[in-house]
Amino acid sequence: MRYMFISATLLSAVVSSQLVLPLLRGHLTPPQIRSHDGDQIPMRMDPAGPGPAIPPSQPAPERPSSGSGGDVMLSDVMGRDRTINLFAGFVRDIESASNRLDDASKNTTVLAPLNSAIEKLPRKPWEDPRDYGALGPNAYEGEDGQDRAHRNLRHFVEAHMIPLSPWPEGKNAKAIGDDQTIWWEVKNGVRLIQPAGIEIINIVSTVSNGQVWIIKDVRNYA
Ligand SMILES: *[C@@H]1O[C@H](CO)[C@@H](O)[C@H](O)[C@H]1NC(C)=O
Q: Region annotation Disordered: residue ranges (predicted)?
C-alpha cells in the first residue's frame, strides 16, 4: 500500500519515456495522451521484449499546440528529452504545474534536473524526513499520506520553475513558492545557478511561453 503513489508516478514516467514519446514524436497522438492523468495513457507493450515499442524517431519539428493560437507551449515539449523524463513525469502529476506550462500568458524557465540527479537522491522527491519524524514509517499511507506526498512533490516541482523567461544572466529571481533569491552566471565557461552552483547543462527547448533548461543537480533538497 505504501508504494501505491510511488509506483503510479514511476509507471507514468516509464510509460511516457518508453511508449508515449515515440508516439508524440511520430504525430500519432490520440487526444487522451495529452491528459494529465497517466491512467488514460494506452499501454502498448512490445511482444519482442522490453524497450520502446516503436524505435525513437528524429525529433519532430515544433508542432502546433492543440490549445491556443498555434503556438508551441512548454507543455508540448517537456517530454521530448529522455534525459529529463522523470522530472517531466512529476510535472504531469502536478496539475497546477502542467497547467502553467500550458498557459500562453505565463512565461516560465523550467530547470529540469537530469534523471541521474533524481535517481541518486537519498530519498524520493515526495519524501520528507520531517514527515517520517512526525508520523513514522506510514507517513505516506492512506489518503492523507497520498495528499502529503503530492504536496511535497508539488514543492519539489515548483522549486524548479522560475516564473520568468527570458531569464537574463545575473537577474535575481525566485522559483514558484520559494523564498530563496537565485540567479545564474557564467563562471569559467560554465553556466551556474547561484548561490547553489548548480550547473546548467543545456537549454533544450525555447518555445512561446518559456524555455527548458537541463540542470545537473536538483534544487532545494535538504
Ligand atoms: C515570453 O516569452 C516569449 C518568448 O521567449 C517572449 O517573446 C516574451 O517577450 C516573453 N514575455 C514576457 C512577459 O517576458
A: 28-75
C-alpha cell at 139: 507517513
How many CA within 13 A on the CB side of residue 189?
0
Cα(148)–Cα(155) distance, integer angstroms: 11
pLDDT value of residue 177: 86
User: Is the Cβ atom of 9 under 6 angstroms away from ligand 1?
Assistant: no
CA atoms within 13 A on the CB side of 198: 20
Looking at the domain assignment, is residue 175 inside a domain? yes
The HSE-up count of residue 130 (CA atoms within 13 Å, CB side) is 4
Domain that holds residue 178: 39-62+70-215
Whether residue 28 is contained in a domain is answered as no
Does the beta carbon of 220 lie inside 6 Å of ligand 1?
A: no
190, part of any domain:
yes
Tell whether the model's pLDDT for residue 209 goes beyond 60. Answer: yes
For residue 118, give the CATH number of its domain. 2.30.180.10
* Average pLDDT for 82-97: 97
**Do 27 and 3 meet the contact criterion of CB atoms below 8 Å apart?**
no
- Closest atom of ligand 1 relative to the 211 alpha carbon: 5
Residues 72, 43, 11, 96, Cα dihedral to 10°:
30
Best of 165, 206, 211 to mutate for ligand 1, by most ligand atoms within 8 A of CB? 165
pLDDT of residue 126: 95
Number of domains forming the structure of the chain = 1
Evaluate whether residue 211 is within a structural domain.
Answer: yes
